[in-house]
Design brief:
Blueprint (H helix, E strand, L loop, with lengths): L5 E2 L2 E6 L4 E6 L16 E6 L1 E4 L32 E5 L1 E6 L19 E6 L3 E2 L1 E8 L14 E10 L3 E10 L12 E11 L9 E6 L16 E5 L3 E5 L2 H6 L7 E2 L8 E2 L14 H12 L5 H5 L10 E4 L5 E6 L7 E6 L4 E5 L13 E3 L6 E6 L6 E6 L3 E6 L8 E4 L6 E4 L6 E5 L5 E5 L21 E6 L6 E6 L12 E6 L4 E6 L2
Parallel strand pairs: 1-31
Antiparallel strand pairs: 2-34, 3-4, 4-7, 5-6, 6-9, 6-18, 7-8, 10-11, 11-12, 12-13, 13-17, 14-15, 15-16, 16-19, 20-21, 21-22, 22-23, 24-25, 25-26, 26-27, 28-29, 29-30, 30-31, 32-33, 33-34
EC number: 3.1.1.97
GO biological process, one term: protein histidyl modification to diphthamide
GO molecular function, one term: diphthine methylesterase activity
Length: 510
């Protein structure tokens, strides 16, 4: 007899100060690689705040971000008379302690907050839409070696001014962190800003993915990374070698060691301008109305497909916002998928030529009733993809037969993020906007060699196993918090954040 999903309780909560939309947890227990510092248990949180400048008497006030939840504020389409907006954000770095400090019995215990600390807050800069951790050799030419206090991974963030920001993670042993018996705190130091593809104002870098997900911790020192970014003007930007792009002598617009630009400001210029890449199902209806009237988002009319650096490839991928892009973890950086507000999932062979801002897709799947907003290739099972949409459906795809999903399950709300568990191939974390956060469990494959068969023959049968609904606002950013293998219970810890209520929660998935 089947039972309903369990309801997780918060173990820790805190205000994020600004609207929160992105979380990236440090993915390795690097003590196995001989590191002196324990970098595991860290996670970064990104924020996105839209500040409206004072409108003049002749300007019409624009509303705040659309959430599709029946806001009292009437949404208005951006126009040339709209006031300017400033999109600003910060990176907050949190540190979690061992699981025995995380209040295993009751979230009401007074000491529940002792297991999570705010370790670092960056200065305000361009708002953050997405983040990922990646190997850090790109920060140093081959003739140099990383500094002793520097982690083997660095943090890359997608910004609201069509750029990437690269930060190194460092341990500050001289600055004791309260409650940390190791007497070590952490900080982020900016190393570079990488402008991407366009000078058109109002274009946002919406999502980011890197190619080294399956790299072992012991190999991080020898790995370069490819990076793919999706943008609000419908383009994808590919950096085949982050190392080469940063250190190439032809670089003119990449800056080192300087603070990144202040938050970009621009008069409203895209169909989902107020959402900054964070919208939901209601936006689809509004966009359809615009198309019937023969109007196109300004960003698509003016967007340029010219990269700012010769090593960066940029091409038109979708007719509207390209919400998400991700590498196939088993393709050696040769394949990526993307999803857009044109209700289309596409595949790309990155070995094919990219000329004049165009590249031919390998497939296009249009079996969606809302924009394709989330996807991730499983790093533990070859050919398996999880894809999410504004229509609230989580769909599982076999990469060898991508024209249709082989399984799907309703999440109850539009999906913004999908995150596979770092070590368990049968669990998937979902950020489901109005429906909160979900843990989806897959039944173990019924065939011994399921990875060699079509997944539709493996009968994975996805079901919602756990829900977390303590956020009082749109559920966006989330990630599994990685800890030492000696701390097995902490493998089930999840960090999640929500937008309007500006909250962080840490909770247990099981």
């Amino acid at each position: 007899m089947k039972t309903g999903p369990s309801h997780a309780q918060s173990l820790f909560t805190a205000s994020t100060g600004l609207c929160a939309d992105s979380i990236a947890a440090y993915p390795y227990d690097t003590r196995e690689a001989g590191e002196s510092a324990d970098w595991s248990g860290l996670f970064a949180l990104g924020t996105y705040e839209v500040e409206q400048s004072e409108p003049s008497a002749t300007k019409q006030p624009a509303s705040h971000w659309r959430d599709g939840g029946g806001s009292d504020d009437e949404e208005q389409q951006p126009s040339s008379s709209s006031p300017e907006y400033t999109r600003r954000g910060r990176i907050l770095l949190y540190q979690t302690q061992t699981s025995n400090a995380m209040c295993e019995e009751s979230a009401a215990d007074k000491d529940c907050g002792a297991g999570v600390q705010l370790a670092y807050t960056s200065e305000d800069a361009a708002a953050i839409l997405d983040m990922c951790w990646l190997p850090s050799p790109a920060l140093y030419p081959s003739s140099q070696t990383p500094e002793r206090d520097m982690a083997p991974l660095c943090l890359l963030s997608a910004r609201a001014n069509s750029s990437l920001s690269l930060h190194s993670l460092r341990s500050n042993s001289s600055l004791p962190s309260p409650g940390n018996s190791r007497g070590c705190s952490y900080s982020l130091q900016q190393e570079a800003t990488i402008p991407l593809s366009t000078t058109t104002s109002g274009v946002l870098a919406l999502s980011i993915d890197q190619s080294a997900k399956r790299t072992a911790a012991s190999e991080l020192g020898q790995v370069d990374s490819s990076v793919v970014v999706s943008q609000s003007d419908g383009t994808l930007a590919l950096i085949p070698s982050l190392d080469f792009t940063i250190h190439d002598s032809a670089v003119h617009e990449i800056t080192f060691g300087a603070s990144i630009e202040n938050a970009s400001s621009a008069s409203g210029s895209l169909a989902h301008d107020e959402t900054a890449g964070l919208a939901d199902e209601s936006d689809e209806e509004e966009e359809e109305e615009e198309e019937e009237e023969g109007e196109k988002p300004v960003s698509l009319q003016k967007a340029s497909c010219t990269a700012r650096h010769p090593s960066i490839q940029v091409w038109r991928a979708h007719d509207h916002e390209a919400w998400i892009a991700a590498f196939d973890r088993w393709s050696e950086c040769n394949v990526c998928w993307s999803g857009g507000d044109d209700l289309t999932l596409k595949g790309w062979d990155l070995r094919t030529p990219c000329h004049s801002g165009r590249r031919e897709s390998t497939f296009a799947c249009r079996r969606f009733e809302g924009g394709v907003t989330a996807m991730q290739s499983s790093h533990l099972r070859q050919h398996l993809w999880a894809v999410g949409s504004y229509d609230g459906q989580l769909r599982l795809f076999d990469a060898r037969q991508p024209q249709r999903p082989f399984e799907q399950v309703d999440m109850g709300g539009g999906i913004w993020r999908t995150k596979w568990h770092p070590t368990d191939p049968n669990r998937l974390l979902i950020g489901a906007m109005h429906a909160g956060f979900r843990i989806v469990a897959l039944s173990p494959p019924t065939t011994k060699f399921a990875s060699e068969t079509m997944w539709k023959d493996a009968r994975l049968s996805p079901e919602i196993h756990t829900t977390f609904e303590e956020h009082q606002s749109l559920a966006y950013g989330c990630d599994w918090i990685s800890r030492s293998k000696l701390d097995r219970k902490a493998d089930d810890l999840v960090a999640s954040c929500s937008f309007y209520d500006r909250r962080l929660h840490v909770w247990r998935a099981s």
